[in-house]
């Protein structure tokens, strides 16, 4: 069995130097009761020491590993170690823990074995006088060692899952905080009380009047920024979605700090809960989108109305020229002058259209990112 592999796995459990745990304190009390000994320990062994995660009947928290009885279990994961009389065993006859405090004479230790087969330490019982224990007592110690490892494995698994969850949560938070607009969770109970259990950091960009140090964002804070003329519409939309469970969609104006106006849009899907309704949705600044739509409408109007007059004029002039069988140079020059004037009007207008299309592209890029 590889020593470094054992130490690496021990460190992965993060047991060393952790506070006492009630469950493990109860395990050592059970072990002492089963074997009728004054001392019982959960001993964890690293490279230089044995450290006691739980103990009864002993004041010290650790001893050097070279003095430990438990070191002999590290490479015997399948068997319990029992020393009936330490003074009769040449390995321990001069051991400081035998000839000195706590004067160990009896020792029984069941190894704490990981799923990888490494021994982290033992659940052991100690007496200051020689004694023997039965096979049933040995089996009970082994069962306790299994239960202790179940506890360590479960704690280790939970700790790893917490790290994964925390890492995932941080990643999601980073993503949501950099999305355009804001993502939110909004709740309303049957009495009409509203709350926002979650809202992404983007809310502070949408509503600069909010204090970025505010830990809890409330619906009332958002309502204060909504244009007074639009607030009744917003509240009515919430109540309607609450009653019908239809998707909540509403557009409204927002007063900025400099008294300018922005348009925001909320889309949220409701879900009925035991004590009310919860919405999961987004709020976006659609000011640029509305400007884009207005630009398109204006372009459509200009194309259908403004172009009508010059196009009609050109058609009329070409029709006259076609019908005039005896057109003289003076008349032709006059017609050409008219055509040039109308063409210049069309050229100027197409330049304006080109300018509008460029603005459209900028707005489209803004909306995309």
Could you characterize the architecture of this molecule?
The chain is an alpha+beta fold. The chain has three domains: 3-165, GAF domain (Beta-Lactamase), CATH 3.30.450; 179-285, PAS domain (Beta-Lactamase, 2-Layer Sandwich), CATH 3.30.450.20; 289-368. It has helices at 3-13, 22-35, 96-99, 135-177, 203-206, 219-225, 231-244, 287-306, 308-323, 329-368, and strands spanning 39-45, 49-56, 62-64, 81-83, 106-113, 119-127, 182-189, 194-199, 248-255, 261-273, 276-285. The protein has a six-stranded antiparallel β-sheet with strand order 3-2-1-6-5-4. A hairpin with a 4-residue loop joins β7 and β8 (194-199). α2 (22-35) runs antiparallel to α4, α8 packs antiparallel against α10 (329-368) and α9 (308-323) runs antiparallel to α10. The chain is elongated, with a radius of gyration of 41 Å. The model has no long low-confidence stretch (mean pLDDT 86).
């Amino acid at each position: 069995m590889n020593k470094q592999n054992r130490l690496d796995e021990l460190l992965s459990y993060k047991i060393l130097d952790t506070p006492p745990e009630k469950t493990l304190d109860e395990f050592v009390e059970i072990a002492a009761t089963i074997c009728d000994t004054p001392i019982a320990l959960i001993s964890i062994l690293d490279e230089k020491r044995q450290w006691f995660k739980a103990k009864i009947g002993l004041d010290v928290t650790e001893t050097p590993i070279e003095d430990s009885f438990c070191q002999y279990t590290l490479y015997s994961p399948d068997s319990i170690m029992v020393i009936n009389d330490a003074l009769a065993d040449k390995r321990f006859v001069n051991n400081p823990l035998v000839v000195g405090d706590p004067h160990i004479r009896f020792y029984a230790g069941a190894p704490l074995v990981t799923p990888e087969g490494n021994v982290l330490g033992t659940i052991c019982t100690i007496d200051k006088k020689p004694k023997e224990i039965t096979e049933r007592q040995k089996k009970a110690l082994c069962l306790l060692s299994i239960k202790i490892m179940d506890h360590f494995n479960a704690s280790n698994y939970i700790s790893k899952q917490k790290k994964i969850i925390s890492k995932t949560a941080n990643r999601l938070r980073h993503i949501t905080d950099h999305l355009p607009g804001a993502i939110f969770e909004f709740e309303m109970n049957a009495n009409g009380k509203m709350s926002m259990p979650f809202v992404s950091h983007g809310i502070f960009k949408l509503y600069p009047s909010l204090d970025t140090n505010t830990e809890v964002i409330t619906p009332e804070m958002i309502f204060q920024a909504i244009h007074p003329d639009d607030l009744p519409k917003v509240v009515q939309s919430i109540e309607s979605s609450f009653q019908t469970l239809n998707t909540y969609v509403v557009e409204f104006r927002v007063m900025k700090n400099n008294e300018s106006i922005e348009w925001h849009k909320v889309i949220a899907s409701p879900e009925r809960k035991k004590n009310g309704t919860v919405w999961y949705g987004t709020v976006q600044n659609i000011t640029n989108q509305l400007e884009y739509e207005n630009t398109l409408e204006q372009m459509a109007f200009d194309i259908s109305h403004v172009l009508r007059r010059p196009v009609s004029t050109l058609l009329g002039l070409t029709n006259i020229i076609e019908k005039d069988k005896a057109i003289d140079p003076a008349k032709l020059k006059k017609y050409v002058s008219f055509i040039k004037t109308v063409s210049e009007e069309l050229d100027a207008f197409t330049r304006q259209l080109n300018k509008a299309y460029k603005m459209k592209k900028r707005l489209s890029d803004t909306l995309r990112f």
